[in-house]
Amino acid sequence: MSKTGVMICGHGSRDEEAVAEFQSLARGMRERLPQYDVESGFLEFARPTIQEGLKKLMERGVTEILAAPAILFAAGHVKNDIPWELNSFAASHPVLSLSCGRDLSIEPKLLMAARDRIQAAMETAGGGVAAADTLLMVVGRGTNDPDANSNVSKVTRMLWEGMDLGWAETCYSGVAHPRVDKGLERVAAMSFRRIIVFPYFLFTGVLVKRIYAQMAEVASKYPGTEFVAASYLNDHPRVLDTLAERVTGIAEGDNAMNCLLCKYREQVVGFEDAQGQPQAGHHHHVRGIGTGHDHDHTHDHGPAKEPA
User: Fold this and answer.
1) What is the pLDDT of residue 102?
2) Do the first three CATH levels of 4-105+236-286 and 108-229 match, i.e. the same topology?
3) Whole-model pTM?
């Protein structure tokens, strides 16, 4: 008799707090999916690795695995790295049936979770500043995949219109432009009374903490503007609901990503040479090496495009 398990695939971090938050999310998934044997693992740094998690499931008698990436958008990690890890394991264990889900993507539940984080930050900051005098800065991770970067901009637009704020901008923590410091300097000159900085990330980590530090540095130059840090998504109930839906989507065959603007499938302007590149993992050298490591892995597997 077959037994089905679920593998929650995380990115991994050098930051122990980020690892603990992911593990909290994994516990939440076990509560939401009691019908499955649920395991989790990381692509880089932290342990267990994805392949170690898959092995644990097999050792517990699982013969069919539904692998769900706990990652917001489909860039290199979802399109290349995680599938490579899964396919490599499946090739070594042919008796195993292994299927992969899609990224969390742009989802109404996640927009609601983002709204809740932003509203909570505004409530903590206190009243007295109208929505029209408030600017929202959404900070994305930043990748060398223009489709993933554009999704962050879409999230920004939907939050701006949905929350009726004065204005909204997008910047990125790395690889893509504008970067956080330049983006915040630009909006600080717009004379809004309040700027909400919202990292559109699942968990804390080196990058999120750097975003808040950069915000504080820019804020010190503009004492007349109130800078407010909003929390990232973390294990918001709607995040857990969305990830659970991705798992059930695999079982129902609803696990295809949107490939219309994928640079590996189509000739996207400026990225024509990426079409047809072979799927390959890029994290062998940092897989399972532990947290707190001083290796600086920027994920920049291609040149960043400088702004004109």
Assistant:
1) 94
2) yes
3) 0.87
At residue 245, what is the residue type? E
CATH number 3.40.640.10 is the correct assignment for the domain at 108-229: no
Would you give the DSSP letter of residue 177? S
Phi/psi for 137 (5° steps) reads -110, 110
Token look-up 């910047």 returns 171
| 147 closest CA partner among 263, 45, 239, 46 | 263
Q: For residues 73 and 41, is the Cβ–Cβ distance under 8 A?
A: no
Give the pLDDT confidence of 60-105 residue by residue, as tens digits. Answer: 999 999 999 999 998 888 988 999 999 999 999 999 999 999 999 9
Instruction: Delimit the domains of the chain by residue range.
Output: 4-105+236-286, 108-229
Instruction: Determine contact, residues 125/194, Cβ cutoff 8 Å.
Output: yes
pLDDT at 280 over 80: no
CATH number of 4-105+236-286: 3.40.50.1400
